[in-house]
Amino acid sequence: MKLFLIVSCLFSTICAQHAGTNIPEAAPQITIEKCSSGGSCQQEVSFITLDSNWRWIHHVDDSVNCFTVNEWDQQFCPDVSTCTSECALDGVDQANWSATFGIQTSGSELSLKFITEGPFFENEGSRVFLLESETKYKMFSLLNKEFTFDVDASQLDCGLNGALYFVEMEQDGGLSKYPTNEAGAKFGTGYCDAQCPHDMKWINGEANVQDWVPAENGEPGGNGHFGSCCMEMELWQANRKSQTYIAHACEVNEPTRCEGQDCGDDASGDRYNGVCDKDGCDFASYRMGDTSFFGEGSSFQVDSSKPVTVVTQFITDNGSDEGDLVEIRRKYVQNGQVIENSKVNFDGVSDYDSITDDFCTDIKDLFGDVNDHQKKGGLKAMGEALKRGMVLVMSMRDDHESYMLWLDSNYPEDGSGPGVERGP
């Protein structure tokens, strides 16, 4: 992608999420551009850091693993406080960005690889954040602005997801807020999103080891007792078959560790009782009834077999940076031509071509979906997060639970009617 734009510890023991020193961190550089409406652009040198969930976790005094594939080592991690004090996150050196994690930068380009056969293990997917310095994420305040990137999804088949999105993380990754966090943004800590993920190995500077359940069938990762919630604005969830952009509002205005009902877990039947709108308000061309807008080949308006420029505009009610968000507008540029977004193509619904509160209400009524978007504050709440500042995330992943059917196939599988077909 080319970018433009605490548990207390006994006695004197130090209870902390340590930053390891076995491997020196070597954050790759990437160049972005900040442009004015008059067309003048200024280059900025930024850096990429790897999410802490992908990093090596080892005993603080040596190189013995605290976490292997999908399980915590009970010797070091019998409980939260012991694990937090005994284990450390470590760096990624220059050679291992590509060799182990399949991540490369060159100038203003970032390349992510799904499967990488590393020297010690097979890596699956990745998630990276944009840094403005060694210790701070770059914060984007996007109200009354547009964000533009070039993307090549031609190698991503169905079931995979190359994503670019924003989440409301702490700028320093929680380093100053949580005394147990000694790693911070430099080591990719503090991730959260509107799904309130339980698979985070570290939340609020503590190991998420309580009630940890390893992933099934030997897959990497697992789920702990706590989740990590925050506002999320998804600009691009896509493969070469289908794409969508989604606004997820939350009732919380900062990264929040959740448990129980607040996490909104499907397993407990609390999806719409949590603090975040997990469904979001999504504009997916295929799902909106235009099956010829995005796909492989020249017969589609946007040809996913070739690179495309994706433009997202955040429109306020008064045209100022301090206004309320009322519209999220999408445009594409390919082969030198500006391509306006597709339109909703269902009888009885206006031919919306952007995300607005009216669009969300009408389309959810048509699809028979719960309007959790409105319940959680709608675009106004989303706009407040965009005003406060959000962190840029870029990732590559698959989906062991729903197999990405929500992106490029029929979902739910046994469903029928408008909105079920989301891709070919």
TrEMBL record:
It holds the Pfam family Glyco_hydro_7. GO terms for molecular function: cellulose 1,4-beta-cellobiosidase activity. It comes from the Eukaryota. InterPro entries: ConA-like_dom_sf, Glyco_hydro_7, Glyco_hydro_7_sf. GO terms for biological process: cellulose catabolic process. Keywords: Carbohydrate metabolism, Cellulose degradation, Glycosidase, Hydrolase, Polysaccharide degradation, Signal. Residues 1-16 form the signal peptide. It catalyses: Hydrolysis of (1->4)-beta-D-glucosidic linkages in cellulose and cellotetraose, releasing cellobiose from the non-reducing ends of the chains. Its EC number is 3.2.1.91. It is an enzyme of class 3 (hydrolase). Belongs to the glycosyl hydrolase 7 (cellulase C) family. This is cellulose 1,4-beta-cellobiosidase (non-reducing end). It comes from Tigriopus californicus (Marine copepod).
